[in-house]
């Protein structure tokens, strides 16, 4: 096998996100439920014999050293592989949105190169390497909706109904470090257990208040007025809204049936905003690629 094509790197939303503490090394302790969605980047990866690693942008130009390239380099160094790779990336998930697009690209790269280079690493080993790249990478490597804790290393799969989610990102982007570094960030939300989420969540009822909250949202609203504008826009149409991750994208639950309970017309989305009606995924398309 010399190449793998049409590899999906799906985004995620955080159904809730609590900051429950901060470690001595500065990393924040989090609790969240992550849902995979069908808004995805696409990668095509070809094996190289010369050991070189190169990325080729098929759409939006990416930074020179993006997470997919860093993931390939980390796996090459950790495994001692002499193979290289050409990584062709078609970027669709907006950056600076809190949707985990870069982390998902990294996870898909790890899963694909694990196959192409014949490493046969188990999922746990890939996830541990992924954690060195970013807190969301282990979740994408594990490949299922999950209750995620700690700094991203504790991933517990959770069964969720198939959800319709209206996801909208304003023109502005937010940096993760910018939000987590705010002195006004709430860092002591009482911890919950997964049973709390499961017992107090009615995802099919869009008028019900969703479980918990996103502790980063208040900071994001203060940093970027557009986040609040998107939240209000979605609230008016769907009856609920919540920011994903560190923003700036906001989503609304739109039902669990065959069709969303509400939607928007193509001409209704304000200029410079990007959005999609997404369906959640029960499993990552590449989840079976690691044991």
How is this structure best summarized?
By secondary structure, the chain is α+β, with helices and mostly antiparallel strands. Helix content is 26%, strand content 28%.
CA(first)-CA(last) distance: 19 Å
**Beta-strand residue fraction:** 25-35%
- Written as H for each helix and E for each strand, in order along the chain, the element string is EEEHEHHHEEEHHHHEEE
What is the 3D form? Answer: globular
- In round numbers, the mean pLDDT is 95
What is the number of E strands? 10
Counting H and I runs of at least 4 residues, what is the number of helices?
8
Radius of gyration from the CA trace?
Answer: 19 Å
Q: Given the helix and strand composition, which structural class is it?
A: alpha+beta
Contiguous low-pLDDT stretches (5 residues minimum) are none
List descriptors.
alpha+beta; globular; ten-stranded mixed β-sheet; 291 residues; 8 helices
């Amino acid at each position: 096998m010399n190449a793998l094509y049409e590899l999906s790197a799906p985004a995620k939303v955080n159904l809730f996100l609590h900051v429950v503490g901060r470690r001595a090394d500065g990393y924040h302790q989090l609790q969240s439920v992550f849902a995979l969605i069908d808004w995805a980047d696409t990668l095509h990866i070809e094996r190289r014999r010369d050991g070189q690693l190169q990325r080729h942008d098929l759409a939006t130009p990416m930074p020179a050293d993006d997470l997919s390239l860093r993931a390939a380099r980390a796996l090459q160094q950790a495994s001692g592989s002499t193979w290289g790779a050409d990584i062709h990336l078609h970027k669709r998930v907006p950056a600076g949105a809190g949707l985990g697009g870069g982390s998902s690209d990294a996870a898909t790269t790890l899963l694909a190169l694990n196959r192409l280079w014949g490493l046969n690493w188990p999922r746990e080993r890939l996830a541990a390497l992924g954690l060195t790249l970013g807190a969301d990478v282990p979740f994408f490597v594990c490949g299922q909706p999950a209750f995620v804790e700690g700094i991203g290393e504790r991933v517990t799969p959770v069964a969720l109904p198939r959800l319709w989610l209206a996801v909208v990102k304003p023109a502005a982007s937010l940096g993760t470090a910018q939000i987590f570094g705010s002195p006004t960030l709430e860092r002591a939300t009482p911890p919950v257990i997964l049973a709390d989420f499961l017992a107090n969540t009615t995802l099919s009822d869009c008028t019900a208040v969703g479980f918990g909250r996103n502790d980063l949202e208040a900071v994001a609203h203060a940093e970027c007025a557009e986040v609040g504008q998107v939240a209000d826009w979605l609230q008016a149409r769907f009856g609920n809204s919540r920011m994903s991750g560190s923003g700036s994208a906001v989503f609304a639950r739109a039902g669990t049936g065959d069709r969303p309970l509400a939607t928007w017309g193509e001409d209704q989305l304000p200029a410079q905003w990007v959005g999609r009606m997404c369906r959640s995924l029960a499993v990552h398309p590449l989840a079976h690629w690691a044991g």
